[in-house]
Amino acid sequence: MQIRAIVFDLFDTLVDLHYEKLPRAGVAGKPHSATAPALHEATRTRLAVSFEVFADALAEVDFAFRDSHYSLDREVTTEQRFIALAERLGVADPELPGLLTSVHMGLVREQVRVPAHHEPLLAELASVRAIGLCSNFSHSQTALRILEEAGLARHLGAIVISDAVGLRKPRREIFEVVLARLGVSPEQALHVGDSLRADVVGAAGLGMRTAWLTRRVRDPRAAIEAHAGPPPDFILRDLAELPGLLGG
């Protein structure tokens, strides 16, 4: 069946997220979140707390969500995470979660880079096919701002972010949402992303064709050899290969 729609992942697919460039902080040999130092400084404006106590509380919050959310591919929104952190720290300040969300997402946005050829490529593809986005991300407002600033949003007929759905790829429900908004069946759509588990397994499970983008994958050969799920229908080194793959 002819491909009538293309659904893209966001990070390390349409835009690159260089999260690894943030300095890593550690206490007593324990690694912590890359944004933890800035989050700690913001928290200290409301509560005198050491970095060790703060970082441990943040780790405990993430651990608590593991069984209830992460292991089930349920999304934890950024604000939900920081509400839980404020409660664990004993901070009765309704503005703190919003402050921490702003700090964290500001740092994330600073690490985003957009390959120069992606906007004209998306424009070309959108002239002949429906184009959508399906992303695992905990803050829709930041994702939308990134897409707008990159000039990509105007080419997308559907934008589906996991925090709005409550579920993460590879859950089939999030793919069903974007397909419904684009008005196509799974067999008529191609999903493009960098994650074998989230993108390839998730989309293939619904009957979509899949393209695995390896441009930001550290060792594609090792990744595909370790992959136990369905293989991608196509492997791309760069999104620039898509028009040729699709025949124009």
Q: What average pLDDT do the residues reach?
A: 94
Measure the end-to-end span. 16 Å
Estimate the global geometry from the Cα principal axes.
Answer: elongated
Low-pLDDT stretches: none
The total count of strands amounts to 10
Main-sheet strand order equals: 7-6-1-8-9-10
Tell me what portion of residues adopts beta-strand conformation: 5-15%
CATH topology assignment of the largest domain? Rossmann fold
Helix count equals 11
For the biggest sheet, the summary is: 6 strands, parallel
Q: What gyration radius follows from the Cα positions, in whole Å?
A: 19 Å
The helix fraction, in percent, is: 40-55%
Indicate the CATH architecture of the largest domain: 3-Layer(aba) Sandwich
Query: Which class best fits the helix and strand makeup?
Result: alpha/beta
CATH top level label of the largest domain: Alpha Beta
Can you tell me the CATH superfamily of the largest domain?
A: HAD superfamily/HAD-like
Order of helices and strands: EEEEHHHHEHEHEHHEHEHEH
The count of domains is: 2
What are the main properties of this structure?
6-stranded parallel beta sheet; 248 residues; 45% helix; Rossmann fold; alpha/beta; two-stranded antiparallel sheet; 14% strand
